Amino acid sequence: MADNVTDVIWTIDLESLKFNYVSPSVERMQEYNPDEFIQQTLQDILTADSYKLVMDTIAAEFAKEHDKSADPLRSQTLELELYHKSDSYFYYK
């Protein structure tokens, strides 16, 4: 199903910050084909401010895992600046 959506879906290894999967729609949005995109790290595709926001959010979420009162169904929505293959960037939410 993820291969046929228009939104970009990706999964990442949180230790290495390398992608495990990216949906084909990444080509429409960022002009990288999935094979090119998956070779990058999270730091490669995010501007410095967005990378810091993501890393701070991940750290905060890991900290909450030790708090038994944290909602296990919680979610986060972040507005991020991602690099386009042309070296420009765009906002994505």
Description of the structure:
- By secondary structure, the chain is an alpha+beta fold.
- The protein has a single domain, classed as 2-Layer Sandwich (Beta-Lactamase).
- 33% of the residues lie in helices and 18% in strands.
- A two-stranded antiparallel ribbon has the order 1-2. Strands 3-4 form a two-stranded antiparallel sheet.
- The longest helix is centred in the middle third of the chain and has 17 residues, at 48-64.
- The two termini are 21 Å apart.
- The relative contact order is 0.15.
Entry summary:
With 93 residues, the protein is α+β, with helices and mostly antiparallel strands. The chain is built from four helices and four strands; from the N terminus they run ββααααββ.
| CATH fold group | Beta-Lactamase
Order of SSEs, N→C?
EEHHHHEE
Question: In what range is the share of β-strand residues?
Answer: 15-25%
Secondary-structure arrangement, i.e. CATH architecture: 2-Layer Sandwich
Judged by helices, strands and strand pairing, the structural class is alpha+beta
Summed up, the helix count is: 4
CATH class: Alpha Beta
